[in-house]
């Protein structure tokens, strides 16, 4: 009779983000095998050769930790966008030297006999929320990250929405009425340009607050600093407005919000909910529930692995 | 050997709008059987009893025109929203006396042995564009109507997106940055509050133009009237901004735009395209193509019938 570990199927999860690239084995219950988790730094200076070496090393080391008798069933990759899902290439915005990088082909070359699937990180986060997080079993769900940027992903009708290029889910570049802040995308008044951590801090500083970080802003808010309170009110309102737009368009049931800046204060959520509640005429829009993410820092890895373990939710075409 | 008419399958299409309710038989190629088309007026004074009588009459009269030997395979209903798709009930905004009206059950009672399906009108229009219109075969498509209001519908990954309540597609209540116009939904800066025909006319009048209708505004624009030009510029820009938001969220390929006010001037489209083109950093967003609807006034009926004839595109759950 086989031992439990011999019956376990693992998927490799790989997460490529703006500050780090990480890999780990994840079992079919969404549990990360702790001693298979490895990471290396990334950043604006990352080169294609450096990224290739890092990914090859991480994947190889993670896979070496596969328990004896357990099986490796595939690899899922979540990447900072933009991506081209059909070709498995990525061009992370903050790594100017990394363009059209063949990330899926690289992982495939290390694991030649297994399925390898790639999606943007926001979609993977949403899969993780649906699987083990705050949106378990919610089939009309948006996952969001509010951090240095604002990103997200969508599950509609029980299936992920990747979009033809693989870039669906960019809630950070949905506009918010009454705002006109210039955005790095070329537009104005995008949610990310208003409500990301750095943009909220910048607004507070431009109104006389003297701190520098989101953590300091959280501390100031906790003491009732009036500028910090106004800054969180403003960003929360923008967050709610963008979610209201998304819900009018998509009839969402739940939005699960994580990311470092989402913890600045519970008032961020309350202000967002108040903005949504203004849309009084449409029950289907005001019904949406905003909940804090229930994922740990392992969320991106679990979500990447879900591209394999939860393949039935991954809408066609399966890249 | 059967004659061609004996081989034909028809679906009944029923369209419930703010000014009229209409029914007709539609064949499997998306062609309306002209002499089966009947309509009756609706409006703010419509009562449930009046609507019940009108729908019963229209469905009965249309079905009586079924050619000898042809088969009737089902009925599709497009309705002004909000709707509750799961129960087949409708509460059209501008008919205050008609709430939770059991429209699907009513049609089912007239056609007891056939499948009867109900969706919001914007989704039906989008199915019609995908079938016989400007979005043929485009599997990531938004259909839009710019008229008294602004509505729409979505096909993503080749399947319609109805949403859990049936109200997905409300692009008119997506916000536009830099605008703050109060909206009937309770929000501010919604696309519909800026760019509908009546709102564009109202803006022009508030800036000194003296006409009263969208047709007059179109004529004034054609002669180069500076206020009319600015009014169309403003509404076109708002249209483009809302579409840019939708495309960032959904990675759309094509948006097909119809409705009376969409004909005000080709500049409406040009201004919308210019607003989208500002989002220079994201190729996946600027790739979206805006095209005029290729549907005639039969579009809503064809789209309603498509709920039956094109059932494979209608995402589960099939209400």
From TrEMBL, chains A, B:
UniProt keywords, alphabetically: Kinase, Transferase
A family per Pfam: ROK
EC main group: transferase
PROSITE patterns reported in the protein's UniProt record: ROK
Enzyme Commission no: 2.7.1.2
Record InterPro entries: ATPase_NBD, ROK, ROK_cs
GO MF annotation terms: glucokinase activity
Keyword Calcium applies: no
Gene3D superfamilies for this protein: 3.30.420.40
Family: Belongs to the ROK (NagC/XylR) family.
UniProt name for this protein: Glucokinase
């Amino acid at each position: 009779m086989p031992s439990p570990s011999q019956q376990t199927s693992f998927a490799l999860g790989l997460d490529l983000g703006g500050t780090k690239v990480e890999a780990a084995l994840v079992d079919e219950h969404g549990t990360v095998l702790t001693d298979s988790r490895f990471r290396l730094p990334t950043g604006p200076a990352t080169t294609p050769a450096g990224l290739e070496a890092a990914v090859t090393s991480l994947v190889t080391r993670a896979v070496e930790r596969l328990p004896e008798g357990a099986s490796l069933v595939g690899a899922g990759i979540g990447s900072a966008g933009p991506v081209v899902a059909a070709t498995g290439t990525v061009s992370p915005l903050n790594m100017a030297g990394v363009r059209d990088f063949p990330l899926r082909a690289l992982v495939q070359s290390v694991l030649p006999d297994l399925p390898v699937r790639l999606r943007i990180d926001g979609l993977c986060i949403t899969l993780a929320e649906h699987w083990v997080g705050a949106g378990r079993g919610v089939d009309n769900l948006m996952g969001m990250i509010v951090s240095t940027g604002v990103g997200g992903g969508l599950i509609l009708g029980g299936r992920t929405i990747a979009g033809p290029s693989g870039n669906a889910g960019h809630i950070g570049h949905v506009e918010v009425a009454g705002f006109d802040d210039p955005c790095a995308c070329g537009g104005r008044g995008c949610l990310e340009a208003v409500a990301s951590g750095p943009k909220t801090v910048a607004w507070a500083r431009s109104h006389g607050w003297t701190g520098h970080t989101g953590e300091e802003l959280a501390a100031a808010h906790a003491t009732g600093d009036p500028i910090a309170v106004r800054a969180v009110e403003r960003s929360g309102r923008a967050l709610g407005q963008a979610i209201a737009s998304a819900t009018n368009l998509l009839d969402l049931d739940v939005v699960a919000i994580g990311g470092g800046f989402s913890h600045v204060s519970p008032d961020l959520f309350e202000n967002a909910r108040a903005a949504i509640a203004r849309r009084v005429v449409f029950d289907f829009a005001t019904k949406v529930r905003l909940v804090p993410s229930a994922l740990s820092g392992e969320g991106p890895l679990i979500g990447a692995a879900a591209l394999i373990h939860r393949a039935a939710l991954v809408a066609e075409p399966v890249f």
